Amino acid sequence: MDSAALTRIAEALERMAPAPMAAPDFSAADAFVWQVSPDRLAPVPHVALVDIGLLVGVNRARDTLLENTRQFAKGLPANNALLWGARGMGKSSLVKAVHAAILAEGLGLKIVELQREDLPSVARLLNILRQAPQHRFVLFCDDLSFSHDDQHYKSLKAVLDGGIEGRPENVLFYATSNRRHLMPRDMIENERSSAINPAEAVEEKVSLSDRFGLWLGFHPCTQDEYLAMIEGYCAAHGVQVAADQLRAEAIEWQATRGARSGRVAWQFFTDLAGRHGVSL
Asked: End of a domain among 197, 218, 239?
């Protein structure tokens, strides 16, 4: 067999079984995104975030998550956290803002974003993070939920329970979801109604959320909280509008959307800042 044929065979084998991922340079950034095919931790130089002081109406969740994260960054015991509840109320924004606040305190902490679709690869990611004990990592999965035939939840147990090795001591897991039990209620009811043993059919999936030590609920905001969010954005970015005019325009905006939330408040403020020639 000639050398060209051997080279092609070697290249084909490498594609089928790629070389192990090289050790990441964790000094390159404080935030990373986990990517697969091939496995890599892509550094994120600038994280899109909202200052923690501008997150209104989530004081209890903010204080609890901040203290839990501070304990972890100091090498003390801390809990995995599930942030669940109403859409657009700042769940993912709070995770990123807390990370930035911890960095501002001079505590070393990395955040690694993991997509729900990549949960089957989480064991490989944990092995990489385990080999960097000098760093501490918050593994973050946004908008986590599972459908009827979704088996990804089994991979999540590797993060929460860690199997025989246990979860790496330098890794904490934070997730956000619109669902407290990470799956739609009609799915839970369907499992109960169609199973031979209804309780056991649901237990494995529903108990997944019980593995989070912290449950932080986010609820729809009141009109006063909605207006306070907008006023905070105006003060932070120097947008000056008469109070009565601001209130009237903000209420009209949320009426056209049919909802109030932190996301709607930011969308209104983005429009307002643009009309006043203020760059964000």
From this structure: 218
φ, ψ at 110 (rounded to 5°):
-105, 145
Host domain of residue 115: 26-218
Per the structure, the count of domains in the chain is 2
The model's pTM is 0.81
Give the other-Cβ count within 10 Å of 127's Cβ.
13
| The pairing of beta strand 40-43 with beta strand 137-141 | unpaired
pLDDT at 203: 59
Q: With residue 243 as reference, give the H or E element that holds it.
A: helix 243-257
> pLDDT category, 60, cuts 50, 70, 90?
very high
Domain identity same for 195 and 102: yes
Domain's final residue, options 218, 233, 248: 218
**pLDDT score at 179:** 77
Q: pLDDT (tens digit, 9 = 90+) per residue, 145-197?
A: 766 555 666 667 767 776 666 678 999 999 998 877 665 545 444 544 555 44
Residues 240 and 184 in one domain: no
Could you tell me which residues come within 8 angstroms of residue 252 by beta carbon, excluding any fewer than 6 positions away?
none
CA-CA distance, 83 to 101, in Å (whole number)?
18
The CA distance from 187 to 204, in Å, is 13
251 and 213 in a common domain: no
CA 239, chain centre distance (Å): 30
Query: What is the per-residue pLDDT for 270?
Result: 95
Q: If you average pLDDT over residues 14-21, what whole number do you get?
A: 54
Q: In 3D, which of 34, 116, 107 has the Cα closest to residue 69?
A: 107
Q: Is residue 17 part of a domain?
A: no
